[in-house]
Automatic annotation (TrEMBL):
PANTHER family: PROTEIN SGT1 HOMOLOG. This is SGS-domain-containing protein. Residues 1-86 form the CS domain. Residues 105-202 form the SGS domain. It comes from Suillus subaureus. Residues 169-181 have a biased composition (Polar residues). InterPro entries: CS_dom (IPR007052), HSP20-like_chaperone (IPR008978), SGS_dom (IPR007699), Sgt1-like (IPR044563). Residues 83-114, 169-202 are annotated as: Disordered. The lineage of its organism: Eukaryota, Fungi, Dikarya, Basidiomycota, Agaricomycotina. One of its GO terms (molecular function) is protein-folding chaperone binding. It comes from the Eukaryota.
């Protein structure tokens, strides 16, 4: 009885065995798949592998006969690596307890109530004090600036109002003065902000 050289490789789902039997006749090759055993027969050549390190599903196992080797594909019933073909090691998943297992840390994390981030955000935003115009003149943007000037204009006397209108118009909006005595002496010159240049468009 001739012995047959063989080797294997595996994934978590399958184990593939290559049996080196050059020139094997597919009509003569017989393979028996059992849950924990494989029997290969080709004439007088036989190879029996048992007990397998894990259980296989015979219905999902198959093989192909090539010119140099016969390849057996074994479907594992439980995912995991065997590290070999035969041996006493049980299925990795058969020894694992069935049902969900929860570590104390996970159980404690599940027991803690979840934070309501929406509520926290709302609380923080409403607790923040909004700055007033007196504290920050930029609060409210252009609308606040306009209402500020309207208030000054509304509370001003006639001379101050004339000074504001004359200075604003003559300076192209770059100067606003409430001092009529100074503004009435001549044309108010354009004073663009630092870093900018005034251009008159016709």
């Amino acid at each position: 009885m001739a012995s047959l050289r063989h080797e294997f490789y595996e994934t978590d789902e399958k184990l593939t065995i290559s049996i080196f039997d050059r020139g094997a006749d597919p009509a003569q090759v017989s393979i028996t798949f059992e849950p924990s055993k494989i029997i290969y027969v080709n004439g007088e050549k036989t190879l029996s592998l048992e007990p397998l390190k894990g259980q296989i599903d015979p219905e999902r196992c198959d093989f192909t006969v090539g010119k140099v080797k016969v390849e057996l594909r074994l479907a594992k019933t439980a995912q995991g690596r065997w590290g070999g073909i035969t041996g006493d090691a049980p299925d990795p998943l058969q020894t694992a307890p069935i049902g969900p297992t929860t570590s104390p840390a996970v159980a404690e994390a599940r027991a803690k109530p979840k934070k309501n981030w929406e509520e926290l955000t709302t609380k923080i935003l409403t607790s923040e004090k909004e700055a007033t115009v007196d504290e920050d003149p930029n609060v409210g943007g252009d609308g606040t600036v306009n209402s500020f000037f309207q208030k000054i204009f509304g509370d001003a006397d006639d001379d101050a109002k004339r000074a504001m209108m004359k200075s604003f118009q003559e300076s192209g909006g770059t100067t606003l003065s409430t001092n009529w005595e100074e503004v009435s002496k001549g044309t108010v010159e354009v004073k663009p902000p630092a870093g900018s240049e005034w251009k008159k468009w016709n």
